[in-house]
Model the fold of this input.
Amino acid sequence: MDILIKKARISNDENLKDIAIKDGKIIKIEDNIEGEALRLINADGRVLIPGLVESHIHLDKALIADRLPNKSGTLKEAIEVTGKLKPTFTKEDVEERAKKALMMLVKNGTTHIRTHSEFDPSQGFTGFETVMKLKKEFKDIIDIQVVAFPQEGIFKAEGTEEMMYQAMEMGADVVGGIPYNDHPTKEHIDLVFEIAKKYDKPIDFHQDFKDDADGISIEYVCKKTIEEGYQGRVSVGHLTSLAALPKEKLEPIIELMNEAQISVMSLPATDLHLGARNDEYNVRRAVTPVRALRDGGVNMCLATNNIRNAFTPYGNGDLIQIAMLAIPVSHLGGADDLPTVLPMITTNPAKALGLKDYGIGVGKNADLVLLDTKALNDAIIDIPDRLFVIKNGKVTVETEKTIKFNF
Done:
């Protein structure tokens, strides 16, 4: 064995398990495993989870909040500010910042990410090419899916349509779209599906990112998904407009989303910061209705979106803190709700990203995190230290700490 983890808690029952790892795979899960291992880890009853999955993040524009701040805190200014900055980005600049963001994620137990990488005629492929390079460089530490993302729109920014095809030829894993920031909206969605079908790739939309529900296009996305036979291959981020719909209008949309097997990435850190900026009292939370979507059968995920830029001027790459934020915001702290939160940063996004051999089971990839907590239901609310991070069967992160009480 390469690694033997002793006495780990992998479920809510009382039985602790030993986990044997060899050649990057989990080869045994039993009550007691004997034998030699190159590395022995005594979990001592602590919780072992599969690696965290960051399903929606922007590496290429991380850590730029201090360059040109978004003073109004609105989405409009965030887009404007970032649009001014992007032509100033160099490959060296993007690489330095993206590496820092990646190390934040790795340190906090993330083993897989999907990053939206932007390009447009004003900045070219500076950021996109850099992120593609980092995907290869970090492949033994973290798996990276790259989304070809037209932040400035496709039809609004002349020349972007051709760049979308170029990005796919350059190796993008996912076709991105942003219907709410382009016109005509339906043609934007149609083109994204056309490109995705050409290259047989999944789709990930920035979807209906507004405080109100006027002009939403999620229903069209669902119908297009079903029409094109793309069920289970389409994800949407933000989707904040659904929070503005009454139950009688929301429920049919959720049913349609469930039929289309749409995955949703809720981005509470960003959406709380940018949303409801014009509300003078009784300020809305402006976050997609996580509970209603979850209860309706939609595959719900929680993700970071941005780290310290005009869209989100804070963050440290810790998905467990994002999940902790979502608990009070989306009323997920009840006894029946709390157990559904950890899957929103593990198994649910793994399903959305189409990850193979993910999870804790014999034959699965050994991408694991040992948490400094002994109760699975407390895995989020303790915000526990990540004691060990294991990627591809190798320990990539180890945390040591000493606490002294002087009384």
